[in-house]
Amino acid sequence: MFTHARMGEGGSAAAPRYLPAATRTDRSPALAARAAHDGGSVGTLSSARPVGAGFISVEGPAEPGDRLQIGIGRAGARTDAGASAASRSDAGVRAAPPGAGTPDADAGRPVGPGVSAPETTRAGGTATTACAITNTATVHAPDGTPDSRTTIGACETIRFTLGGAVADWRATAGWPGGGRARATFDWAAPETSGTQTITATTPGGGTCSIDMSVVAPRDITVKKTGPVAYAAGSAGAGMTLEMRLQPRNVNFGWLAIREDPRPATGVTGYFSTRAAAGADLSHHPNPDFERVGWNNIVCCDTAATVAGSLTPPPAWADGTFNWVVPTRFRYFDDEWSDGRVFTTTVQRFAIDAAGRVTVGKFGERESRSP
Length: 370
Hints:
45% of the residues are buried. This protein is mostly beta strands and 370 residues long. It has 4 helices and 23 strands. The longest helix has 11 residues, at 29-39. A hairpin with a 5-residue loop joins strand 12 (194-201) and strand 13. The strands form 6 sheets. Strands 16, 17, 18, 20, 21, 22 and 23 form a 7-stranded antiparallel β-sheet that branches. It folds into 2 domains: 4-95 and 217-368, no CATH class; 98-215, Immunoglobulin-like.
């Protein structure tokens, strides 16, 4: 028998599609008032690390059925004590700033990285500086790229200031679309890749703008975190994988990912016999989107045959099959969206006449003999 382990749910209560720093639960009263003014009924987002930041696990009993289990792991909460030391440490990733990713305003910084070049107006032939925008990412990039970066992840939140000056703000896309009479403009990028322009207009009529390059996830790389255990004498193999969204010079912590169900392909030998007897070899992943961590990691995906699913009869024999698995992303709390496919991988299964099973995915593999 093949089985599919049901995995749990993540996320939180429904919220607007884009939630910049101004709508977080750690916001100041002034930011809250501005958010309510510009956004109407504004939801809130917990300032805690999102589920998926290095301590998701596959949990819960297997459901009956004739299927193999693979898919992104359960988003049920684990205590930090239950996570591995590597998961807890997030080695090489800078800690989120105070206020869970909302940095202090950086007023009066000179023009440089993260600061737009000042635009000028001319009055009576005299050039005057209009304004210069400073941009600060509210959560660090996992690879340590400075928070002044102008390349950002889909749905990532950015804070814009004019060194303490008040201005009216406008964005070509993302959320919110603008704000009036603000010294600080907190903005979330759209889900789609492209260049978005943020423009500030001062009370005196001066304007300046800055372009932000938004990138969606492009790929997944993995690190094998361990094998799946099976009883001695039984056929089966599996592994757990730490999944890292690429690129890592932006932060994808506002996203969630999900694998698509797919039929088996390339079915041969032993698995053909099982399929002819009624076994369902299709891919049945977790139907829920799983939150990406602030370190661009989802841990862990389990690629495995389920214990007891390859017990004879029929007798073991050479055989293979594959899953061609698309993975999609969306804003983590957008329960109305099916997301966008950004990468596809092939997961491979093989068995030989001695009952040795091999499972491969994302370039990693695990083999085991009974």
